[in-house]
Design brief:
CATH class: Mainly Beta
Number of strands: 12
CATH architecture: Sandwich
Bound molecules: 2-oxoglutaric acid, fe (ii) ion
Largest sheet: 12 strands, antiparallel
CATH topology: Jelly Rolls
Order of helices and strands: HHEHHEEHHHEEEEEHHEEEEH
Shape: globular
Distance between the termini: 27 Å
Oligomer: single chain
CATH superfamily: q2cbj1_9rhob like domain
Number of domains: 1
Amino acid sequence: MRNLAIQEIVFSDLIERGDKDPLELIRLKAEFRENGYILLNNLFTRELFDAITKDCEKVFSMCQHRNFTMPGYLTPRKLSVAGGKMISEESVLIPYIYVHYELIAFLSKIVGKDLYTINHKEECFVANYLKAEGETHGWHLDDPMYALIVVLESPGPDNGGCVEFIQDWRTLCRENNLDPHADVNAGVELAESLGRIRSFSLERGECYFLNASENLHRVTPITKKGCKRKVLNMAYDHRSKIEFGQTADILYAQEG
Ligand SMILES: O=C(O)CCC(=O)C(=O)O
Ligand SMILES: [Fe+2]
């Protein structure tokens, strides 16, 4: 991308909403507090969204395939991925958007706390690509507290690739003597029996903002041949120091 285009992004309005509609902001804030996530249908301008899609073509073409069970969580990772290191090398736009003042200010207002970018070279922003039947991003928590997920390609509403999540996972585990990292499969079964698993699917162009550290989440397997799901995940936190586990490096560090 040319420098001029970058300057346009840095100095222009990045997002469609935010301070422009204070009532909308109040609604989003309340919804986030109550549900642990919000859908953001038109977060970026159409022009910027198209530019992101174009800019990320190379990143998605270079994603590395994974097919393993994540240690600890014991849940599947069957998808292709790119971590922050590779995205920083191959995308011009994403690092700029990630640190853009307007985006961080908007998300901080939703959370009600000042947010920071994440000082982890793989987990700051990642790309996740499900491209075949059965591919899935299994149940987990993120180390950073907040995740902004941008959907660049969607499998459509009835073809798998939905987000499922269990709100207040850590509390549910505490109340049932489960370890939030080691007893995931038992906890998911319990949550299912209690009707506590919620799910939503997203179309291309939509985003969601999730408290990804307190709400267990996954992306369900793609169920139809030819359907694909591409997302970017940008991570933020109100804590200036975070304890990182090994899972992001296990999933995202590049091989070879
Ligand atoms: O693909 C999604 O919607 C969620 C991604 C996710 O959970 C992650 O990258 O940690
Ligand atoms: Fe996640």
